[in-house]
Amino acid sequence: MRVSVKLFPATVLALSIALSGCTTSINSEDIMAHRVNYLLDVTQYQDAQWFDASIHSVEPFKIRFDDGIRASGVRLSVEGSKNTVIYFGGAPYRDQKSDVDILGQFALLGLNVITVRNRSIDSHGNWPTLTQLKEDSEMVYQAARQKYRNEFLILHGTAVSSFWVSKMAAERDDVDALVLEGGITTFEEFAEEKNHLAWLREKLDLKQKVDVDSELTSLNNYKSLELFEGPMLVLAAQQDSLVPSGLANKLYDASPSMKKAVKVVNYADEKDLMMRDDALAAYMQFVQTYGWKDL
């Protein structure tokens, strides 16, 4: 999930910027969700070049949230695989057709994957809050865990959704593994890297101090990761123009886990990280080392 007006292309979130005196302030009340134009349809995956009907199958994965909102997603299964990625950061938080390509990469690794296109604007014209998006993510995980009890579930969060998956990993004892892609430590540290806010140059005076709204400051991956001792992989793109790649090593150091790895992929950016061979190799090694093993 990437916060945007292009703050993160992995989401279609809108970020409102309020200027106050000599301070530039990021206000979390105006972090909104995405507009969903491309509905999930299993045929778009079945028609993909990478899809092999002899080993792949795809089915709808639907969920109804506590407030009655329904969300739809897909479950891609690879024959014989017990390792399943629950992917937050693709379909739930962006309005792009590249979701098909992302699932193809997981299929290439022999991994099942579940991804859900999350809620959009409601009938009253209200956008989801950060709290709603977090709770929705938790319900997606709970539904997947209940349905696929005998599979090794890997929570994969991109950018802002790294906060959701890390929190779940810290608070639950049934999270098998954690992957953070382009993850953020805290919004305070993120805001310190002003060169990554250059896209806001017309709205911000980047010479001023950037204050972060209290709701955003409550998101802290240091606190979550220090409670997680399970397998963890941190992926980052060296040329990520939106999230500083230097945060990857800080995320890695935050966890006391002895089963962890970090990979910063040279020459990659936020758009093609999961398309790079180095990233796939790191993912494959991680799953082979810590994932499901047939006895």
TrEMBL record:
PROSITE patterns: PROKAR_LIPOPROTEIN (PS51257)
Protein name: Alpha/beta hydrolase
Origin species: Photobacterium aquae
Taxonomic lineage of the native organism: Bacteria, Pseudomonadati, Pseudomonadota, Gammaproteobacteria, Vibrionales
